[in-house]
């Protein structure tokens, strides 16, 4: 134990908080929470029985821990929220964590707009919108939004529409096929539109009976006014909702509001089948996969899921059913009560309908995990073989778990950009890809551009500093691959040495003969043409190249459109502002049909045609 670590342990406060355990490279190994930081953290270095559940797992690597950071909070509920945020940020190896939880989608209703939209999003922003989720996949969101679009038409465009203002002269195709009520041409007033949005909220909340009652009243009123076509449309809508309700009721056993969690586990993977029952109907049944070390108990894995999932969920029911008793259940209930605003109970169903539903959820979780495991086995063997072969070829002691690959793209030396792609255990981690706009290099200088990118990525990633700021949240890689030959490798070695990372494994992949250049070898490494390792590094290089080219193309396109937009014939500052107010960007003006451009006040058909021709030239 280092003197600095000893001093930290001696001065830990007896207060609630969150702690981060780091190794000598600054990599976060474990994130935990505690009612008392002093007693919890010290227990990892004590041998007596009664240490926390995860202590038995962390003790196996306690010799690798050289630093403990901690943050004091006011309550265990706050500690749970902060712990979830830090697990998502650092992805510590020894924590149970939701797979790709940051990418889970939500349904968002933009209530701050005069005419709200219903859309899919992956970000929770406090902008006055209402969110439903998280959903397990984008397809689950699309299925729900397609259903409500058929029942309650709503606008999907992003043009600015204000109450009492006509944004366009003509509506789009969605209005004519009855998928939008066209507030853009004032075909519906804001109050009536809001009534439909309120019905969508009730439908997503599981309150379909309330929606049906309202629609039945409207249908009766329409029939009394002899508006038989409208009454027939409302009747069809009611029947569609009732069919949905019947399908949901078939699987629901308890007329209550609860979430029921089925659980299955195999090796270092776990699956949770979550049944969301609202008002006696099963409104959601999603599967979530978790990374869980073999040493972690089922109770610990489930408790981690509850904390991480409900830390991001937009709806917390009054009751959560789990298959086994959870550790620190009082802390979790207090946390959920904070999220809901009223008391929440975590229970293990022992008999009756809830027990039957739990058995069904558990079977579903087991089947989902079996399917995932079968897919994983199909390529895991080849991936592990490729990583082991690559480590042997490059002289690395262990198969690289995390590989980062860098590429540079430019067009005649202009708009130079760099890309960083990340593979973990041989699989792409697209959420951790990064792109860089080259700032300090003029002209087509590949070496200097690589140096700038590496410097910006690693400039503070020294021991004890990694993770302190936005760009430092990424783990240090086990291997860095540069797209290029010996010159690029030499430039990279110089930069990494300057940053104190000279021991970081590095290789350059040249395109001509697919050679791997290493800093300390004169001769390049040639992998066999049929080698799994060669296929892996080619995938890395191609992915980095694709990501860089896509960014470069996007920058060129935006620059070209913006340049042409600034010199449109017959369009001065006032008309340019009007176009941007309606379409939001020059790119959307270019993509819009002539009719929509002509509908902008002050433009007209002739000028719209000239604008379209200029932007598409």
What does this structure look like?
With about 625 residues, this protein is α+β, with helices and mostly antiparallel strands. It folds into five domains: about 5-95, 3-Layer(aba) Sandwich (GIY-YIG endonuclease); about 105-250, no CATH class; about 260-370, 2-Layer Sandwich (Nucleotidyltransferase, domain 5), CATH 3.30.420; about 400-555, UvrC, RNAse H endonuclease domain (Nucleotidyltransferase, domain 5), CATH 3.30.420; about 565-615, Orthogonal Bundle (DNA polymerase, domain 1), CATH 1.10.150.20. About 45% of the residues lie in helices and about 20% in strands. The chain contains 19 helices and 20 strands. It has helices spanning about 5-10, 35-45, 55-60, 75-90, 140-150, 175, 190-205, 210-225, 230-250, 300-310, 330-340, 350-395, 445-460, 485-500, 530-565, 575-585, 585-590, 595-600, 605-615; strands at about 15-20, 30-35, 65-70, 95-100, 105-110, 120, 130, 260-265, 270-280, 280-290, 320, 345, 400-410, 415-425, 425-430, 435, 480-485, 505-510, 515, 525. Strands 13, 14, 15, 16, 17, 18, 19 and 20 form an eight-stranded mixed sheet that branches. A six-stranded mixed sheet has the order 4-10-9-8-11-12. A hairpin with a 2-residue loop joins β14 (about 415-425) and β15 (about 425-430). It is globular, with a radius of gyration of 29 Å. The protein starts with a helix and ends with a helix. Mean pLDDT is about 80; it is low at about 50-55, about 245-255 and about 465-470.
